[in-house]
Amino acid sequence: MPALMTETAKLSQQLVELYEKLSSWEEDVVKNSGLSTAQMHTIEMVGHEEGSPLRMKELAKKMGVTTGTLTVMIDRLEQQGLLQRTPHHTDRRSYLIALTKKGQTLFVEHHQYHLRLTEEITATLSAEEQALFGAVLEKIISQM
Amino acid sequence: MPALMTETAKLSQQLVELYEKLSSWEEDVVKNSGLSTAQMHTIEMVGHEEGSPLRMKELAKKMGVTTGTLTVMIDRLEQQGLLQRTPHHTDRRSYLIALTKKGQTLFVEHHQYHLRLTEEITATLSAEEQALFGAVLEKIISQM
DNA sequence: ACAAACATCTTGACAATCAAACAATATTTC
DNA sequence: GAAATATTGTTTGATTGTCAAGATGTTTGT
Description:
2 copies of one chain form a homodimer.
Chain A: H1 7-31, H2 37-47, E1 54-55, H3 56-63, H4 67-79, E2 83-87, E3 95-99, H5 101-123, H6 127-143
Helix pairs in contact in A: 2-5, 3-4
Chain A binds a DNA duplex through helix 3 and helix 4.
């Protein structure tokens, strides 16, 4: 890191570094599951909606992709038995997307990885630091 | 957010949210430049090495892709006049990758976006919080 | 000089992505 | 209630990002 740097520049670079480390961590973890990161991301998004499954359109919006993209994505994950389309009760144009048992297992397992990483990360922080870090993240997130 | 949640689970989710917000922010910013995020990421990596340009192999390693991937990436950015290959002085197998003037301009401009975002983010934090946030990030990054 | 190691590029394959066109179903308007 | 309009999901065609494997030229060690 350059010797002369404003506080903002320093923080900006730290955010970039954190982002990159999280990226490559996720890639490593996902590779062992045989899925791509985009596929795992889809599993995470679907798994996060347990109880109120989303339609294609809603899921696509939430993920920031077009429905065309999502169609092929869901096709492949459905072929692998990780999730399934079930017809919408009142709107026959739509499907609701939900994880299968197999998909849920994968989702939970992956979630455990996240928790483990978070534990490792926070292990080096004091209780005070941890609390403040959480509070700061909360502020930042709600403001972005 | 679920009512009952361990501190770790909460923090884990916050990290995911931060990551996703940074992703979509970057996508929005990059879209206006006419490049893809992968291309902009390459510009950032190359731009970050001002003064000691890297070879294909080194850059590929740094970016976590194969040299084959990097070849086509650099081809396209070179076609757009954003960077260039220059022969390595002593090793005729290698090229050094560096930004052109046009590429540097783009790089600086993008960097400004990062700084502006960081400023926005930190604007809501007290000086104390800011300092502690930086210190915590430092710890986390060096430990990951 | 020769073989082994190395750096890059090329090729072939596939996944992810979008925009635009399309088919089926819903909704609105008259 | 029929016709026009809107919405939802899929398909198609194009581009990009990616890797693995192989080809080509270069360097290094013996």
